[in-house]
Write a structure and sequence with these properties.
The complex is a heterodimer of chains A (112) and B (110). Chain A has strands at 4-7, 10-13, 19-25, 31-38, 42-51, 54-57, 64-70, 73-78, 87-94, 102-103, 107-111. Chain A has 112 residues and is mostly beta strands. In chain A, the strands form 2 sheets. In chain A, strands 2, 4, 5, 6, 9, 10 and 11 form a 7-stranded mixed sheet that branches. In chain A, strands 1-3-8-7 form a 4-stranded antiparallel sheet, with no helix packed on it. Chain A is globular, with a radius of gyration of 13 Å. Chain A starts with a strand and ends with a strand. With 110 residues, chain B is mostly beta strands. In chain B, 0% of the residues lie in helices and 62% in strands. The N and C termini of chain B lie far apart (41 Å). The chains are: A mainly beta (112), B mainly beta (110).
C-alpha cells in the first residue's frame, strides 16, 4: 500500500466548478505539502502545514484553499476552477525540517 | 530569493557515466536535495547534501560546493531504467519549504 495516497488520480472538470483533491498518509509525518507541476516550470508549492492547526501559503496560493482535517489528511480545494489550473498536483509529507519529502502518485487535473 | 538552474535535457549511453549539474543562488543555504521522477510518476528522493563534498549511494553520487553554489548528481553504469527527470531542490535558511529547479530530463540510449 502507498504511504501517501492521493484521490482522485485523474479528474476532468469545467470552468467554475469547485474541486477537492484529497491526500492521506500512513507515514505518521506532521508536515504535509501541496505542489503543482507544469511543463517547463517544475514543482511549485501551493500550501503547506506542519500540524493540524498550522496552515501556510506557498509560492502560488491564489485560487486555492486547504484543510488539514487530521494529522493524516490534507485536502486541496479549487473554489472556482479555471483552465490555467490544469496541471499535475502532488501531495508530499516529511518527518522534519531537513528531512526528504515523500510524494504521492499525483492527481492529473484538467479544467475545460 | 532563489534561482536554481539545471540543463533541460541530456542523453547518455547505457553503461556510461553521466553528470547532471545544478547551480543555485540563495539568500541563505540550508541543504540541497536530488529527486528522480519517471514520466507521470511521483518524485522519489535520491540524496541530500548540506556540507561540501561527495555523498555516495550505490551507483548514484551527489556533490556539493557551497562557496560556488553548485551541485552535481553523478550516475554510473547507466541503465535504461535511469531514463527519467532529475530534480534539484534547495532549502533556504529560515524557509520551511523546498525550491525546485525545473529538472533535467535524461534519456539513456542503448
Amino acid at each position: 500500500d502507498a504511504d501517501v495516497t492521493q484521490t482522485p488520480r485523474n479528474r476532468i472538470t469545467k470552468t467554475g466548478k469547485r474541486i477537492m483533491l484529497e491526500c492521506s498518509q500512513t507515514k505518521g509525518h506532521d508536515r504535509m505539502y501541496w505542489y503543482r507541476q507544469d511543463p517547463g516550470l517544475g514543482l511549485r508549492l501551493i500550501y503547506y502545514s506542519f500540524d493540524v492547526k498550522d496552515i501556510n501559503k506557498g509560492e502560488i496560493s491564489d485560487g486555492y484553499s486547504v484543510s488539514r482535517q487530521a494529522q493524516a489528511k490534507f485536502s486541496l480545494s479549487l473554489e472556482s476552477a479555471i483552465p490555467n489550473q490544469t496541471a499535475l498536483y502532488f501531495c508530499a509529507t516529511s518527518e522534519g525540517k531537513n528531512q526528504p519529502q515523500h510524494f504521492g502518485d499525483g492527481t492529473r487535473l484538467s479544467i475545460l | 530569493g532563489q534561482n536554481i538552474d539545471q540543463p533541460t535535457e541530456m542523453t547518455a549511453t547505457e553503461g556510461a557515466i553521466v553528470q547532471i549539474n545544478c547551480t543555485y543562488q540563495t539568500s541563505g543555504f540550508n541543504g540541497l536535495f536530488w529527486y528522480q521522477q519517471h514520466a507521470g510518476e511521483a518524485p522519489t528522493f535520491l540524496s541530500y547534501n548540506v556540507l561540501d563534498g561527495l555523498e555516495e549511494k550505490g551507483r548514484f553520487s551527489s556533490f556539493l560546493s557551497r562557496s560556488k553554489g553548485y551541485s552535481y548528481l553523478l550516475l554510473k553504469e547507466l541503465q535504461m531504467k535511469d531514463s527519467a527527470s532529475y530534480l534539484c531542490a534547495v532549502k533556504e535558511t529560515g524557509a520551511n519549504n523546498l525550491f525546485f529547479g525545473t529538472g533535467t530530463r535524461l534519456t539513456v540510449i542503448p
